[in-house]
Amino acid sequence: MKHLAPTLGQKLDRLFAYCHHRDEPELSTQAVATLVGQRIGEPVAVTLLESARAGDVESLPVAIADALCDLFGVDRDYLRLTGGKDIDIDQRLRLWTAIRDRGLNHFAARATAMTREDVEKLIAEVNRFPVQTRVNVS
Asked: Is the pTM of this model over 0.70?
């Protein structure tokens, strides 16, 4: 089975979804634009990120793409490449987001010889668990 590379919009959505704790909301687009702007030393338009997430922009300037990856703690190739290593990075982001959202705190992924199909099966299995909501006990 051939895996299609995610679009820029899908990649950005995954980064936003990945980079927060289970009991916290994802960062706003405004917050990300501000943080990226601080990293590159110039303002980043919120509308650029919103348009990219909506699929209206197919690529970002390299400085912005790299700063986004650095901010979210992801290999820069994720936003630089399409159809190769980015698919593998995307699968890992989807897997770890699903694990976090389901509260599987002691999950260990030690296999080194998994194919993309194997990873997709693992993601599907993890997604079978219910999403956990944090309960505050007073």
From this structure: yes
